[in-house]
């Protein structure tokens, strides 16, 4: 069974940095696109950043120039480096991966990690 485990969230002051990690495990054949979404109470989950199979990144406009998404295919891991954090970046962050498992491709989610930007 596929599992995605996130780490790296926490409390940080405005202007600070955090690095999120998400590692997939469990009999994986291959991983395609990877992404980080975020959600605040009462709002829909939104895409913050994604990265294609060949490493092409895509960012929500409000995080461009501050966030960097990367992947390590050997470790089945996706990262999100977040710099110059703002209070509006406060959210629960979820990783998402499209994974081939037992011959089928499905989307899988991590459990979520809280990021709080506050002084």
Tell me what the structure shows:
31% of the residues are buried. This protein has 119 residues and is an all-beta fold. It has strands at residues 3-7, 10-12, 18-25, 30-39, 46-51, 57-59, 67-72, 77-82, 91-101, 104-109, 113-117. It is built from no helices and eleven strands. It is globular and about 45 Å long. The model has no long low-confidence stretch (mean pLDDT 96).
Keywords for this entry:
seven-stranded mixed β-sheet; 119 residues; mainly beta; four-stranded antiparallel β-sheet; 0% helix; 11 strands
The gist of it:
This protein is mainly beta and 119 residues long. The protein has strands spanning 3-7, 10-12, 18-25, 30-39, 46-51, 57-59, 67-72, 77-82, 91-101, 104-109, 113-117.
Number of strands: 11
The 3D shape can be described as globular
* Percent of residues in helices: under 10%
Question: What is the C-alpha radius of gyration, as a whole number of Å?
Answer: 14 Å
Fraction of residues in β-strands: over 45%
> Segments where pLDDT lies below 50 for 5+ residues?
none
Count, helices? 0
End-to-end Cα distance, whole Å, is 40 Å
Run of helices and strands: EEEEEEEEEEE
The major beta sheet can be summarized as: 7 strands, mixed
């Amino acid at each position: 069974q596929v599992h995605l485990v996130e780490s790296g969230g926490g409390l940080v002051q405005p202007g600070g940095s955090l690095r999120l990690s998400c590692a997939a495990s469990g009999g994986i054949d291959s991983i395609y696109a990877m992404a980080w979404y975020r959600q605040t109470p009462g709002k829909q989950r939104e895409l913050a950043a994604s990265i294609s199979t060949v490493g092409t990144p895509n960012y929500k406009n409000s995080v461009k120039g501050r966030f960097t998404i990367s992947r390590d295919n050997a470790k089945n891991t996706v990262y999100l480096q977040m710099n110059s954090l703002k209070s509006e970046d406060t959210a629960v962050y979820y990783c998402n991966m499209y994974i081939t498992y037992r011959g089928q491709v499905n989307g899988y989610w991590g459990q979520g990690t809280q990021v709080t930007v506050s002084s």
